[in-house]
Amino acid sequence: MKVSEQWLREWVSPALSTQALADQVTMAGLEIDGIEPVAAAFSGVVVAKVLACVPHPDADKLRLCQVDDGSGEPVQVVCGAPNVAAGQTIAFARVGAVLPGDFKIKKAKLRGAESRGMICSASELGLEEDTSEGILVLSETAPLGEDFRDWMKLDDHTLELDLTPNRGDCLSLKGLAREVGVLNRQTVVAPVIEAVEATHSESFDVRVEDSESCPCYVGRVIKGVDVTAETPLWMVERLRRSGIRSIDPVVDVTNYVMLELGQPLHAFDLANLNGAVVVRRARSGERLILLDGQELSLDESTLVIADEQSPLAIAGVMGGESSGVNTSTCDVFLEAAHFSPLPIASQARQHGLHTDASHRFERGVDPGLPRLAAERATALLVEITGGQPGPLVEAGEIAQPLDEQRIMLRRARLDQALSKVINSGEVVEILERLGMAVESEAAGWHVSVPSWRFDVAIEEDLIEEIARIHGYNQLPSNRPQASLSFKRDDEAITPVGLLRRQMAARGYFEAVTYSFVAPELQSTLLPDVLSPVLANPISSDLSVMRASLFPGLIRALQHNLNRQQARVRLFETGLVFQGTLDALDQVSMFGGLACGSCEAEGWSSVNSPVDFFDVKGDLESLLAMGGSLDAWRFEAAEHSALHPGQCARLLYHGEEAGWIGTLHPAVRAELGLKSDAVLFEVQLDKLMAGQVPAFNPLSRFPEVRRDLAFLVETSCSVQALLDLAREGGGEWLAQAHLFDVYQGKGVAEGYKSVALGLTWQHPSRTLNDEEINPLVDTIVEKSRQELGASLRA
Questions:
Q1: Does residue 194 sit within a domain?
Q2: How do residues 202-257 score in pLDDT, each as one tens digit?
Q3: How far, in whole angstroms, is CA 459 from its chain's centroid?
Q4: Which domain does 433 fall in, by range?
Q5: CA angle (674, 679, 684) in 5-degree steps
């Protein structure tokens, strides 16, 4: 928000320089983002009057003007402005004047006629950015001969405030002046606003159907408005210095009151209204062309101002083109309403609109302002346009000056939070200067909050108010005291940083994707999983919380493949969300994805596509980092997103902990992927779990190895054979591993040959055949009984 310093000082003027005032306001939490002069530097320009204006004898577009600049003798000036005329009061640059851009005014001859000075336009004086079409015409009451810069009070500055969203009460001159007055213990002198007496009885019906979104609405018919009247220069200047362009007197007045009091207003052309003004929700299929020419399709979520036939405006955001004030308008209906912040914020974002009105309503507007603002705007419109006001029509409840909410501020809590004891009298004074009603008691104070301070709701808010008005720089600086101790390093936990480095070492890149995904993608991968739907998503394709890391990884894969990255290896850590908001499970997961060739391109690499077992090996390297690889099992299973023949469920100590598999062909086709992709995800807490490393002495005695080749059905898992081998191998079985799988000649159809290598070793002696053979027989017998396995001849 921008505001003129001189305008502010008309309300409250502390004995501070411009910079000191800006610093004071900034330290109170209302940051001044910039200080700029309201006009460029110039000198030698005075208020003058055009006595006569005749055509130039030798130029069609030039005029010879006689100008009285207050010096006692008229001077001749050649002027080419189309709007110059006798009797006008103008800004006149005398000979010797210096205009913006170091442009010096000298005597000159134009087409043979002497010219001693220049009649100035607004742009030539730096008062407008665009080139003016004509000269600047001043009020007839402007004092002849007075320095134009002094008369216009151009030695002024624009203060630009960067307010936090909770301080919507300061989005007006009134709010800022109130803060400056509190900080400097000065009384704010505001314009007296009195009720305007109605001069006719005509009114327009108002009906509020959504009182929750619009608690109060006031309106008034003003007849006989002269839209062609000229907005006073003082108002035009105050609007300009606040960053708003003058349009016409009706729009200028509504903008001016909004800047002054903080209450947005809107004026409708009464001739274009039918029946009554209704505040309601839009009906599906209704359309509205806004003042900026944009056409919107509305739905039931949009709050509108309508008449009996159609919508007129999006409530609290922008008016419609059909009902707006134009050059033929004679009668207007002036509205001032209070809207709840949430509906305005929602529909402004929904339609991609951000206006001065929505900016204020989103942050909260004083509910006690509508009537006051309507009276102020009416008085200004009557003064400028000569309109005749009717009675004020009210719908809903007008808020009282003080809210019913009372907050208890405890003396002990205040002292503890500020680390300083502030005198009770000063505490009461600060709160009362802020407009709050205070009742003292033994333990502290009961505080009633004014209607404009909707950001003050709890005790901590009151403490913050006292701190910032008392002065943050007056609070003591204390070093925090705490008992510090080293964090225990649990060696049984594998840090997630090590897991990430392991994946990076195996050629994977870490991905960071959104925690919310497209509902269509998630339902394709996980049709039976329920996850929360966002109430206000940033886009339609990011509207549900992810129930798995798979959707984000696949979206990242698509992004890379679309940019000619044929070999993709990604991993990610993050939360997944399953269930409803009332019963939500949030689980940290570690996921990965591989697509493309198994090895990076090179003269010695084999250009074969990555498969299930390649990624399974990468995953097993992660599982082994905890030191308890034997606790993990891969179990054949089915997953909606994974290939039914290349999919496994991960078990940790018998409990489900994750999945690995190749992307389902149907899913791959639906997503338009031309290459297979292998994915996995594991619960992070189980992946990080392990055991404390411990040293086992190395045996000096030789190992004993036996190789056993079993014939088993193809459906039999190797893991089952290994488990039986470890179970029957006895205490000194050091290792059991798979070293060959064979199907083909010599092996019956439906069977496979699985060769295991078994190694025994004793720490203190050499094992002999008499000890090993019974163990081998036990393993063979268990395998035969439980798995139907037989030794291959």
A1: no
A2: 999 999 999 899 999 999 999 999 999 989 989 999 999 999 988 999 999 999 99
A3: 27
A4: 402-473
A5: 160
